[in-house]
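I'm curious: can you give me some protein's one-letter sequence along with its backbone structure tokens because I've never seen that pairing?
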Amino acid sequence: MARQPPLGELPPDYTPPAAPAAPQILAGSLKAPLWLRAYFQGLLFSLGCRIQRHCGKVLFLGLLAFGALALGLRGATIETDLERLWVEAGSRVSRELQYTKEKLGEEAAYTSQMLIQTPRREGEDVLTPAALRLHLQAALAASKVQVSLFGKSWDLNKICYKSGVPLIENGMIERMIEKLFPCVILTPLDCFWEGAKLQGGSAYLPGRPDIQWTNLDPEQLLEELGPFASLEGFRELLAKAQVGQAYVGRPCLNPDDPHCPPSAPNYHSRQAPPVAQELSGGCHGFSHKFMHWQEELLLGGTARAPQGQLLRAEALQSTFLLMSPRQLYEHFRGDYQTHDIGWSEEQAGTVLQAWQRRFVQLAQEALPENASQQIHAFSSTTLDDILHAFSEVSAARVAGGYLLMLAYACVTMLRWDCAQSQGAVGLAGVLLVALAVASGLGLCALLGIAFNAATTQVLPFLALGIGVDDIFLLAHAFAEAPPGTPLQERMGECLLRAGPSVALTSINNMVAFFMAALVPIPALRAFSLQAAVVVACNFAAVMLVFPAILSLDLHRRHCQRLDVLCCFSSPCSARVIQILPQELADRMVPVGIAHLTATVHAFAHCEAGSQHVVTSLPPQAHLVPAPSDPLSAELFSPGGSTRDLLGQEEGTGQKAAYRSLPCARWTLAHFARHRFAPLLLQSQAKAAVLVLFGALLGLSLYGATLVQDGLALTDVVPRGTKEHAFLSTQLRYFSLYEVALVTQGGFDYAHSQRALFGLHQRFSSLKAVLPPPAAQAPRTWLHYYRDWLQGIQAAFDQDWASGRITRHSYRNGSEDGALAYKLLVQTGDAREPLDFSQLGARRLVDEEGLIPPELFYVGLTVWASSDPLGLAASQANFYPPPPEWLHDKYDTTGENLRIPAAQPLEFAQFPFLLRGLQKTEDFVEAIEGARAACAEAGRAGVRAYPSGSPFLFWEQYLGLRRCFLLAVCILLVCTFLVCALLLLNPWTAGLIVLVLAVMTVELFGIMGFLGIKLSAIPVVILVASVGIGVEFTVHVALGFLATQGSRNLRAARALEHTFAPVTDGAVSTLLGLLMLAGSNFDFIVRYFFVVLTVLTLLGLLHGLVLLPVLLSILGPPPEVVQLYKESPQARNPPAPRAGGLRWGPSPALPQSFARVTTSMTVALHPPPLPGAYIHPGSDDPPWPPAATPAAGGSSTLPARGPCAATE
């Protein structure tokens, strides 16, 4: 036999032969599809041959290119801003949020830090003095937090949010108020004197102790300061705010406290106050009018008597409000305390974050472990820290996942026979996929796609599992090259057979992830785009670089090197010499034998002296009879993967047969061929499969009705942590959300007051809106503004009636009367701004409760400057803000009458509280009601929109299911088109899409049974499941198309060739996902690991069980058929010659024959491998072991070199 040229040394004139599909006989109308597929396969064949010829260069350039792209990871950015991650770009909510930021600079005016206290024993009452004293202990520890940064000390009084600090002309009083003005703290302790202990401000006046809220009586202080300063305006301001005695007039929780003021109602009785009675209806800050904390903000789990009295509660809540970073920066900009540190907004944010972390830590540690109550603390920084931790890459889990995959790939591809072992190929393939994943993510970073938690926590493992599937497929195809394939064409043959499947699955995966990018959530859109790019890089690596690795491994096998340890030569191993098919000339074979292989067993041994392999052929060939089972008879073809290790015992007449261990003979392909396919394709098994999958589909349809929408924050935070405990408690007891109804510019506020009041009324009537107490006016700027005008109008009327104010003078009137005088003379005309004739005949508010349009913006300036507490309580956030204007009652120049009008408003808001929002349906109902109210106001000319966290994060559910169905339907259509285009068989493409649709429905239904809610994240997985499912179906479908025979035979052959790579791919995907199960975030485990694992198992079942059954029943006809030609010899076949390969016609067979070819495999068997066992020769060869062929028919092959270097 001529020696093959070394691999890679092809002659210059070598031309790859045409694809082997060409000799097949085409069937009817299928010529064009088969020709096109053959043309595509021919291109892949040429690509494979060229890669094999230049494997070293391709490998070097491929690794260089992928490594360069992987360097892009150095510029990757991780996005943790919830708004940027969750709000759809360009959506209605996004435009509204952008409008808010354009006008205000930031959406939040303050940040909230919360303390929730619950009893350790479920159901205990917290409305007791002892429980409230424990709450005071925790809140006091948290309020005393100090952090040192930038050489300064920062405490609560410096960074807290203070509502409506008034402007006072008296400098001494202004400085005192600045130091004493209380922080906004919403706490049940404000019902008692102890609430003053949380306020840290203090002031000093000569002759008396430090003034603090624990000993401050504002009324008494003003009386003492009255002789020294004119405080009439300030006194009226406090009277309007209903400050009274502030905290010193409230009962003490502990009357025995030595600092309990004598003015406390229970000071003399020394009795503990009735806690439930005091907390009923809520509490007040230092201002009874503007600082009312509703009961729902303070108490949770309340129980009431039939008459409505508060009886008990199970939770207490205190909320500390801090300035936002922008406000803190503005507050200290230019201040002497920060002039030397280069004060910036970033430094302000750092200060707030450090204080919040310390706040949470001290609050959680405030109570001893044996206390009857427990404290849960939370801050906005805590949430940011969770998101940062959620987005961090776990190097240990990534390394563990990839090492596990390396081990699996190596073990499953190792063989005892070094010539067939591919362990090194498995290792190199997994490392190549890892490099491809890194390069894909690096390319995403170069393209500016920001990373997020889904990218860092899930994508590396998901991409690994998907990418290794194609590695296994190519490796299996390479190992199962058809007999007679020249070594120079092995890679071309591999790509010809497996390339279309790899291309089809990769393209479908890319299309699936690109379609998943239709989900309008930025975080998931980025995840889908990154997954699509990574799949594309995997595809390029598998189709271009991995064939070069296989070609290099072929060099190793050609040079007889050990697998993995390729630096060492292998011992004498089995060699298979493939004899090219030869025609049987005039020898005829009956048509009934569809496939015939003659296997010739030979003996091989290594001569000790010459170290050469000597092989002896038997004197005659023997045919192996086919089994009696019909399907097995169709499938029967002696496999070349299992060898009988035969030997002879020299020097004795005893014979022995050597065989490999049964476990070494067993393979997935062997199982599929001899066990799985014959069982599955029986009629009874098919019926059972269809019934079982029909039942699974029915159950899934029922489970689909159980799927609820939603994704709670408790699903994201790791279980067992303090943060999760807080969020669970808050969701249970305090499901309140602050929202605002924002009115935009583009309409005239002054002439639209009736529409604004109507909008507020419609919004207030929503079921989810918490109504204000019956005795309190609505907490909106328009109501406060109108009430303030009515108040000063009443003061003017009294002064006018008593004569203290006349047409020409207001100095003798009250402060409010003088303010009304100045407003009543305004005309709103820049040329004639004043008209004194209007006094007495004009009203600041008409009978319908509307403000005259010409006075609207002038009065807005006066109200904003004169009633800062009311303005702050309204949370109006006017833009443009009204100009500052100071009222001077004793001005004699008349300039104080010229009041600058505020600019037309472009932004204002009405605050609301939403309650009872537990389920996603509650949020959707509230959002729809709010949107309907805004739409109705829009028809009246008022432009408005709702704002707040429910609208930011839950509005997606308004159209999520519609978006999901649209994306899945479009993807199924795209999958059909891609499969039909590449398979060129719409029939098969339709069956594939049918199976994929069933898989998606079943996955959706199983989510319902598992209690997994539908949000944008499962939607992405459901959409991507269509593409991932193609991995399990298209290989079987393509194998079915490429074979001949009946539907059963073609389905069985498809299973035989694809069972192993599909199973290996599923196991590799599961191993890639296994690392997700170790995540600290229950969210990752439930929404990614569980869902993707169920998807993989469903794909395996549908691809290897349901689809073969459907193909065997509904599969398309074969694209190639064997046509038989009659010949004269067929009618009267000659008698067989002695020793020839000839069979006579069977009377039961049709009287027609065909010319066929046969391939003969001469297996040269070495001595048994370690671990083989010997048994008596019951399967003795039919020729004597010492038989020596005649000289004319010698079958002894010449020696082909030393044992270590045999070809």
User: Anything to note?
Assistant: Residues 39 and 1112 are 27 Å apart (CA to CA). The longest strand covers residues 110-119. The chain has 39 helices and 23 strands. The radius of gyration is 43 Å.
